[in-house]
Specification:
globular; about 260 residues; single chain; alpha/beta
Length: about 260
């Protein structure tokens, strides 16, 4: 007779499990990209693109099974942290939250689970939306979610009091970050708020977790990186947004809040 023990149970495809993360980050494309990391260190360019001749996002579109596994892996790894983030902010006056580039919707699900009267808008690429439909349905909040297919480089036809951009900007160099923030600002009303949710770099305070994620961003995306609160303030200013505060959460992530100028 066989049964799962606590270790093997962790590798099952279940909430709180890490099966999808292990399958994705144990794949050959990660190992080959990591082996080419010396190219990134020397040039600042993506070792993934150097090895495969295409961007990470292009590959995810070309191999939808890998893209689906990637989104599920992030949802698996960050599920508890998303609940902690949802609990760290005051949503009492928010009727609708717009989650920009929210992947399969794990953060949005955590927010809506905590606040039964709130609605959500998920802005994500069309090919990701079926996976978001599955996750949000499993979490029993799909009926309160609107899907808006497209990229965050396109105009965003959404309305909400709070806009969240979670683990998006660390994937991009400064110019692209400014473009993403500008798209948000163009659609926001003057009374709305923007929440950038990221691991923050703190000067003179080395953090192994942040450093490891920085190396992953370099491997996949080249000049992408974790940033300081001051660097986000500079990006906000260029996009017509005003930095207002940084909030800590029980997770590894901070919330950087901004408002339209």
């Amino acid at each position: 007779m066989f049964a799962n023990n606590p270790v093997s149970d962790l590798y099952r495809d279940r909430p709180g499990g890490i099966r999808n993360a292990v399958l994705f980050w144990g794949d050959e494309h990660v190992l080959k990209s990591a082996a080419g990391l010396g190219h990134s260190v020397k040039t600042g360019e993506s070792s993934f693109e150097h090895v495969y001749g295409e961007s990470f996002w292009d590959r995810m579109r070309r191999f939808p099974d890998e893209g689906e596994r990637f989104n599920r892996a992030l949802a698996d790894l960050r599920g508890d942290e998303h609940r902690q983030i949802a609990g760290a902010y005051d949503w009492s006056d928010v009727k609708t939250v717009v989650d920009v580039g929210g992947g399969a919707g794990s953060l949005l699900a955590a927010i809506l689970e905590k606040h039964g009267g709130m609605r959500g808008v998920l802005v994500e690429q069309q090919e990701v939306l079926p996976d978001a439909d599955r996750l949000l349905s499993e979490r029993r909040v799909r009926d309160r979610c609107e899907f808006l297919g497209g990229t965050f480089f396109d105009p965003i036809a959404a309305t909400g009091e709070v806009w969240t951009v979670c683990q998006v900007l660390h994937d991009w160099p400064d110019a692209e970050c400014r473009a993403i923030l500008q798209r948000c600002r163009d659609a926001m009303r003057d009374t709305d708020r923007l929440l950038v949710i990221e691991m923050l770099t703190v000067p003179c305070q080395p953090n192994p977790g942040v450093a490891m994620l920085d190396m992953m961003m370099l491997l996949y995306f080249g000049e992408a990186r974790q940033r300081t609160a001051g660097e986000y303030e500079e990006l906000f200013s260029a996009a017509g947004l005003e930095f207002t505060r940084v909030m800590a959460t029980p997770s590894a992530f901070g919330i950087v809040e901004a408002r339209p100028i």
